[in-house]
Write a structure and sequence with these properties.
The chain is α+β, with helices and mostly antiparallel strands. The protein has helices at residues 13-22, 69-80; strands at 2-8, 29-35, 43-45, 48-50, 55-64, 93-99. The protein has one domain (2-115): Alpha-Beta Plaits (2-Layer Sandwich), CATH 3.30.70.120. β3 (43-45) and β4 form a beta hairpin.
C-alpha cells in the first residue's frame, strides 16, 4: 500500500479528479495548501511590484494498493501538466509516494488492502 500526495495548481484540480476517476481511482482527499518552489510570480499592486511569499495550491492525497501506484501517478501527471508542447512548466507541482504501513476502515474495522 502507498500514499500518493500530489501538490497541484488550483485550476487543474477538476482535470486531475476526472483523470483519476477514468483510471478507476475514485477515493481521494483534497485540501488547500500554500507554498513556493522555483516559480516566481510577480504582481503589480498600486504601482508596486510584489512577490507573494506563498502561492495557493491544492493537495491531493490518495491511498492505493501497490498495483494502482503507476496508474494513479500517470493520471495525475497527464492532467496536472501544463504547456504540453514544452513538457510542462515550472509550478506544475510535485508528487510524493510514501509507504503506507496500515489502513483501517473505521466503520467495519477492515485492515490493509481491503480497507482501501
Amino acid at each position: 500500500m502507498k500514499l500518493i500526495t500530489a501538490i497541484i495548481r488550483n485550476n487543474r484540480l477538476d482535470l486531475v479528479r476526472e483523470s483519476l476517476i477514468e483510471a478507476g481511482i475514485e477515493r481521494i482527499t483534497v485540501s488547500r495548501a500554500s507554498g513556493h518552489g522555483k516559480q516566481i510570480k510577480e504582481e503589480v499592486y498600486r504601482g508596486q511590484k510584489l512577490v507573494p511569499g506563498l502561492i495557493p495550491n491544492m493537495r491531493v492525497e490518495i491511498a492505493v494498493n501497490d498495483e494502482f501506484v503507476d496508474v494513479a501517478i500517470s493520471a495525475i501527471i497527464d492532467a496536472a501538466r501544463t504547456g504540453e508542447s514544452t513538457g510542462g512548466e515550472i509550478g506544475d507541482g510535485k508528487i510524493f509516494v510514501t509507504e503506507l504501513k496500515e489502513c483501517i476502515r473505521i466503520r467495519t474495522g477492515e485492515r490493509g488492502s481491503e480497507a482501501i
